[in-house]
């Protein structure tokens, strides 16, 4: 394992950031049902237009940030085969 880790030293940021962005994407996706729940329970029940607008804005924000995290994670994941072929050439 130590032998393999010395080759990954050059790619440590990619190996750390790809799962981090994927985790962030999943967490943001899990927040959406909670926002919808509060939208229905509070905003629609009390007919609070300002609250509804803020929750819709939050849902759009979560969607945009989640999509951005997904794109970055996929970009970093796309680099993984290049890294593995380079490391296999060293070994």
**Global structural class:** mainly alpha
Major sheet attributes = none
What is the approximate shape? rod-shaped
Put simply, the count of helices is 3
Q: Could you give the order of the helices and strands?
A: HHH
Instruction: Please report the total strand number as a whole number.
Output: 0
Strand percentage: under 5%
Uncertain stretches of 5 or more adjacent residues: none
The helix content, as a percent range, equals over 70%
Instruction: Report Rg.
Output: 20 Å
What's the mean pLDDT score? 85
Please give a structural write-up.
There is one protein chain. The protein is mainly α and 91 residues long. The protein has helices at residues 2-8, 12-46, 49-90. The chain is built from 3 helices and no strands. The longest helix is centred in the last third of the chain and has 42 residues, at 49-90. It is rod-shaped, with a radius of gyration of 20 Å.
Care to give the gist of this entry?
Helix content is 92%, strand content 0%. The protein contains three helices and no strands.
Throw out a few tags for this protein:
91 residues, 3 helices, rod-shaped
Secondary-structure map:
Layout: H1 2-8, H2 12-46, H3 49-90
Helix pairs in contact: 2-3
């Amino acid at each position: 394992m130590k032998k393999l880790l010395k080759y990954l030293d050059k790619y440590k940021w990619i190996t750390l950031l790809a799962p981090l962005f994927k985790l962030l994407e999943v967490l943001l996706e899990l927040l959406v049902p909670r926002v919808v729940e509060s939208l229905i329970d509070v905003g629609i029940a009390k007919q609070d237009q300002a609250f509804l607008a803020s929750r819709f804005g939050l849902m759009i924000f979560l969607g945009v940030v989640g999509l951005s995290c997904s794109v970055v994670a996929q970009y970093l994941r796309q680099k993984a085969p290049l890294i593995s072929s380079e490391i296999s050439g060293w070994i």
